[in-house]
Amino acid sequence: MSAHVAIVGGGITGLAAAHALALDRRARDLGIRCTLVEQELRLGGKLLTERIGGCLVEAGPDSFLATKPWAANLCRALGLGDRLIGTLPGQPVYVAFRGKLHPFPEGLALGVPSRFAPMVRTRLLSPLEKLRAGLDLVLPRRQEATDETMGAFIRRRLGDAVVARLAGPMLAGIYAGDADALSLRATFPQLLEWEASHRSLVLAAMARRKLMAAAATGSPSPMFLSLTGGVGELVEALVGALGGPRGNDNARLVTGRSVVRLVPVVERGRTSYALHLDNSETIIADGVVLTAPAFASAALLRPVAPRLASLLGAIPYVSTAAVTLAFRRQEVRHPLVGHGFVVARDEPLEITACTWVSSKWPRRAPPDLVLLRCYLGAAGREAVLQEDDDRLVSLVRRDLRSTLGIDADPVFVRVARWPNSMPQYLTGHLDRLEAIGTELRALPNLALAGAGYGGTGIPDCIRQGTDAADRILDYLLA
Ligand SMILES: Cc1cc2nc3c(=O)[nH]c(=O)nc-3n(C[C@H](O)[C@H](O)[C@H](O)COP(=O)(O)OP(=O)(O)OC[C@H]3O[C@@H](n4cnc5c(N)ncnc54)[C@H](O)[C@@H]3O)c2cc1C
């Protein structure tokens, strides 16, 4: 048997799926080959690391969560273990609120306070708002089991100010989402577990802190990891492991071609798929892994599985942009001690967050430069992305002037636009995933994976890509 698997999309999910297939001993023994098709000329999707003016610039993601092991494990498997780096430790993150930067109170866990003294001291909440947050200690558990938004949940436990200035900007920011629309269950189910186990989130966060302190050995481990050469190194290593930019006999990599049609072909009771590319090439596959964004996979599936397609098409995506600026260090008076800042709700700024790249990561910029990265867009804030690059840069510079006092001309600027890039896990997302799973049962040699479904971060995408490859292999080997 010499089966063939097609993977649509060459972002981190698709590359992880191809890698899992290429490495699987069962697949190799049986000569199972795969072809990955990516519409762009470049592989990596949202992972894009560039070198500009002696700096390392991440156009998309800059790191991955250390607590989700799949990315670091893949790096190690690819021989990149000694290239893993953590964020520089012990640095605060700030919140832009009423024209000033205030450090997040120490001891926040998922936006929930785990220590009293920093909460008493913070100027992010008024005394009344602190008292309201303290009510969490006595409020009963919620009885209904319906999906709640992240905003409603935090507001119910800790009050609106915590949504607006602490947990909201921190947690919803990760999804470029609106705290009052994102499903808590689909984004931070740990918070639900905390309420279930301890009733009070503060008590749960305190218990967790104690457990972590007891287990800690040596210096605290970083929350985020990257690679010395940026996340693009992971893409390069994956492509290298797959035989180079065109792949090898087992794994063919096709770039600059999009899959425009997916047609099931039934022969002797077995369904395979014909994937039509935009250059009129056709790929016949015994199994297919779709890793394109949900709306793109929906377009391919509409004629094949309309119900499944409409479930995928209902997952909304929002657009974002990342604007990176380098300044001469001597022209920046602000000490930039910290990892950057997020922006409180209703603050009159266009940017939603700013990472102080050269303070957060080692060796991202030469010593005489500082590197800052600002985010624009997100749910409810996409209108600004209609502006051209010059206008976006001038809005970012206006915000950097008012928050960090930076008046200098940047040495360089890089605007990276990411249209329809961030899937929104709205309330009901998990029910939708269940319905998608039900539809997929009728299509056993078709798998879906990627940011639109079971986690948007790099580790979750890698896990989903690997699981999708396993699902197809199990089918082919059955
Ligand atoms: C600005 C920004 C910052 C982020 N920061 C972080 C971070 O710091 N940490 C983190 O963990 N995550 C971060 N994320 C999220 C994370 O980067 C993404 O969720 C993840 O990279 C998505 O990977 P993917 O493979 O699922 O999708 P993609 O990277 O979108 O890959 C899908 C690929 O499919 C291709 N495609 C689509 N249709 C077709 C077709 N018909 N035929 C062929 N190819 C097709 C696309 O061209 C694309 O390359 C960030 C995202 C953005 C936009």
Tell me what you see in this structure.
The chain is an alpha+beta fold. It has 3 domains: 4-45 and 232-315 and 426-477, FAD/NAD(P)-binding domain; 104-215, protoporphyrinogen ix oxidase, domain 3 (Orthogonal Bundle), CATH 1.10.3110.10; 317-423, Alpha-Beta Complex (Polyamine Oxidase, Chain A, domain 2), CATH 3.90.660. Helices cover 36% and strands 24% of the residues. The chain is built from 18 helices and 22 strands. A hairpin with a 2-residue loop joins strand 3 (49-52) and strand 4. The longest helix has 20 residues, at 458-477. The chain binds flavin-adenine dinucleotide (FAD). Residues 8-14, 37-40, 45-47, 60-64, 258-259, 291-293, 296, 320, 322, 418, 421-422, 450-451, 456-458, 461 line the site of flavin-adenine dinucleotide.
Describe the structure concisely:
By secondary structure, the protein is of the alpha+beta class. It is 36% helix and 24% strand. The chain folds into 3 domains: 4-45 and 232-315 and 426-477, FAD/NAD(P)-binding domain; 104-215, protoporphyrinogen ix oxidase, domain 3 (Orthogonal Bundle); 317-423, Protoporphyrinogen oxidase, mitochondrial, domain 2 (Polyamine Oxidase, Chain A, domain 2).
